[in-house]
Amino acid sequence: MFIFKKNLSSKKRRLLLENLEGYLFISPWLFGFIVFSLWAMFASLYYSFTKWNILSSPQLIGLENYKDMFKDPLFYKSLRNTFYFTLLAVPSQMVVALGLALLLNQKIRGQQIYRTVYYLPTVISGAAVALLWMIILNPVSGVINRMLGWFGIEGPAWMLDPKWVIPALVLMTLWGVGGPMVIFLAALQGVPRALYEAAEIDGAGLFKRFIHITLPMISPVLFFNFLMAVIGSLKVFSSAFFMFGTEGGPRNSALFSVLYLFANAFHYFKMGYASALAWGLFIIILAVTLLVFKSSPLWVYYEGELKK
Amino acid sequence: MFLSVNLKRIFLKKVFKQGAIYAILSTGAVLTLIPVVWMISRSFMRLEDTSTDMWIPNPFTLMAYIDVFTKQPFGLYLYNTVLVTTLGVLGTLLSCSLTAFGFAFLRFKGRELLFILVLSTMMLPGEVTMIPLYRIFYSLGWIDTFKPLIVPTFFGSAFFIFLLRQFFLTIPRDILEAARIDGASSLRIWWQIILPISRPALVTVAVFTFLGLWNDLMGPLIYISSPKKYTLSMALLSYKSLYFEYTNMMSAAALITLLPCVIIFFLAQRAFIEGIATTGIKR
To answer: Is the N-terminal amide bond of B59 cis, ω within 30° of 0?
Structure first.
């Protein structure tokens, strides 16, 4: 009896130690999660109901910030710009990335070299890329307008023309299309050859094979790339800030949501209002993500699904 | 006779198709490289040559590079960036591998639930937590120091914890059991067995963290104000507002900034492309 009890308690102790050890190992993340995510999220929500400039302490003002937001023409402007950018950037990214991946997936020599070249621009981002594009998109001395000139085309003023600012930024993101391209390529290489052979015997052409085999087989990866591109586009910031600062370019044509949020927080020190903007953005991203997820059964095909 | 004509047609069609593929791919590759080639060529030119159609610098000069380093302490900015990036990579590797080890190999209450929380934090955009974090670092007196850029890396990052845990789960358990029977502690197993086996995954994490920190603009923008603490991103911003007309100097500054990223890319290319490809496919 006594021995049994001792055993039990030693088992308990071992269990306790095991638990303790587990928590010790995950403690870096656990602490970070509690402070940097959980607390910060609720704090940000709280600040969004306050007037606060960092120096004084936050003052509760109810829904005032949100009301201001819906009356703020710059908020609408930033939203419109962000959506317009997303609408242009995401589909063109998907088409170019998938197109290149399809070509690379053919039996060609130098596949590795092409892949490396296309992937290379994705390793640089932020300030250096923005500076690089400012130089090459210079209306007079930049290489792009010079090359257009060879074909007798007079290039636009790009970053100086409100109409061309967003298309120029889209062009910049297309330069980094190697990221999704590599993911598409890996997916294409995973499509079983037998499916194509069977379809060819049945007389399906190139286009039909693409629509009925390739597209469904890679749709989970298309889903992943699409979602990543949408979220990335909604959060566009660095290049626009680097080029135009907090004003957001000629006639606010590059005033994006995150840029406007940043300007309010760290330029005008309207921390409360900026927190409200952050929550507005968060809700939009969440809604779009949810929409993409909910729509996925309509267009994403998972191979394992039937077996379930 | 008939057969051979048909074969010829099929052959021609194939050649044509192959040719079209190579033409498109090569045009794309050239277009991709032109911006960088253009920058390289400008950076070795005199200012007056940069607005010409010249591609090969003539005369060839290093003046732009000398300007970059002498007009402002660019060497110091480089050092600052190396410091922040190195410590940040170290912090990320340490915190993420420890946490991932806990989630992959140790048993504790609420493990599954906590792991779901790890995944869900990936959904939380940094823009939401940015202002509260600023407040924390402000009250700690850390504004205009490197601490707000470095310290958070020591508390893990959801995506890399996930990536490492997935990798750890592929390691055969027998090795671990054997080590345990020999009396090795968890900490020793983590350091002496798991980390060495997981080199490819750790390289992937290190490379992505490096690139993220090296190219980061928003972090330094929020926390750094005195010029002697500028990172390269901030330095480029200040150069842009001061010397933008000096195309050769701007090109040189941008090139020096992006060169380490390109070198890292070539050193770790395999980890890179395979790493990113598999993260996209594994669900």
So the answer is: yes
A181 lies in the same domain as A52: no
Which tens digits make up the pLDDT trace of A239-297?
999 999 998 888 999 999 999 999 999 999 999 999 999 999 999 999 999 999 999 88
Instruction: Name the residue facing A40 among B39, B133, B211 (closest C-beta).
Output: B133
Helix (H) or strand (E) holding A33, with range, is none
DSSP A90-147: HHHHHHHHHHHHHHHTSS-TTHHHHHHHHHGGGG--THHHHHHHHHHT-TTTSHHHHH
Q: Show the tokens assigned to A233.
A: 């586009």
Q: What is the rounded CA–CA span in Å between residue B43 and residue B62?
A: 8
A244 and A201, same structural domain?
A: yes
Domains in chain A, number: 2
Please give the CATH architecture assigned to the domain spanning B64-281: Orthogonal Bundle (1.10)
Residue A52 shares a structural domain with residue A148: no
Interface of A with B in 196-255 (CB under 8 A): 220-221, 224-225, 235, 237-238, 241-242
Q: Distance, in angstroms, between A295 CA and closest chain B CA?
A: 18
Contact criterion met (CB below 8 Å) for B35 and A133: yes
Average pLDDT, chain A: 91
Answer yes or no: do A50 and A71 share one domain: no
pTM of the model as a whole: 0.90
* Token pair recorded at residue A168: 């120029």
Give the domain extent around A197. Answer: 65-307
Helices (H), B140-198: 147-150, 158-168, 173-181, 186-189, 195-197
Report domain extents, chain B: 2-63, 64-281
